[in-house]
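Fold tokens
===========
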Amino acid sequence: MQQSTPREHVAAGLLDDEQFRHACANRDMGTVFRLLNHRGFSTRLIAGLAGITQGRLYDYMNGKRRVEKLAIFEQIADGFRIPGHLLGLANRPWEPRLSPPEDARPPRPADADDLTAMTTFRDADRATGGGRLYEAVARHLSNTIARRLVDANSEPQVFAAAGAFAEMAGWMAHDSGRDELADKHFARALALARASGDTLLSANIAASSSHLALQTGDPARAVHWAHAGLDIASRGPSSSSLTAKLHAMKARAAAAAAQPATASRALDQACQDLDKQPTTAHSWVSPFDTASLASEAALAMRDIGRYDDALEHAEQAIQLCEKGRARSLALSRITLVTIHVCRADMDAVVQFGRDLLTTDPSLSSVRVTNHVANLRNRLADHRSYPPVRDFLACLDDFMRTRSLLLADLMPPRSEGAPT
């Protein structure tokens, strides 16, 4: 391929390539660079267009590093003429902008049937977990919504609905312990949301990706997605609850990366945003309330060693858990017990751990089961203390029961149990 290829044609031959689009959706720039190299572009040219050194390029291509900074993603999009939506970015300045017709109308509200289905799935997920709902959501997405995407008369709101249900499928896959599948759903959800032009939905999906990165032990990627979400949200309608969620994710990621000052500042900003005058609820964005923030704050404070503050937030999260939020209650109780483990207060561990044993057996959340298993492993070193030993026996019975009830859902551990 000639080095003089006009810039507007640099990535043109790859834009319809499924592997290339998937790599862009996952922001896997190492694969993007390898595909360009295979098409005949020299590493020198690729590095030049991306605005990086060849040494850094080789690190990306060999999987030794990942692109994390938003500015570099923008350089790559502009250098290779990759449309912004493929990388989760706003439309780039060089992309053609279509003038709206004179009789253009505001987007139609979300389809009532789609909203009813979303509300039904969301309520069931909160009450009983997503493990046994995943297949139903996936079928609804493929059988009811996806076929409308190819209708020439479909409006952008159909893409928003598809993005919202793809995000929900990702969360339910995550709750089933299938984190690689969840990551794929979130990538597709973001592409659909970008195609719809719904900035708030796109930012919310970035928050979901940040959460997933934390669960899979990648705080750098979690930081990246939190920043990306805040950047996207800044370009759309105001939503204080959504920016609060994104700042909370930034705090969690900073805490996991041992950056206590950054984590504290981000939590303060999340609190300030949540205290602002509420904005209009968004049809596709899941609510983020005081209980949600308390839950995230407890984990962040625990990870930076501020155990007294962590306990206060964890207790608040438990108190605020509404009826019908069985998974949130179970996760908050696990957090509370792990904080007492960090404090080496074994009597409190046993006291509050017994509340955890009352978790509804019908809760189909592999995620909760995996967290309990991790808690049990942390307590094994303290089994010489009789109360802990007795509690571990009860916890083992609890785990056996849940393992039997969820035997058809439990994935191989290699698919990524929470850490």
The longest helix spans residues 156-175. Confidence is low (pLDDT under 50) at residues 1-8, 98-109, 414-419.
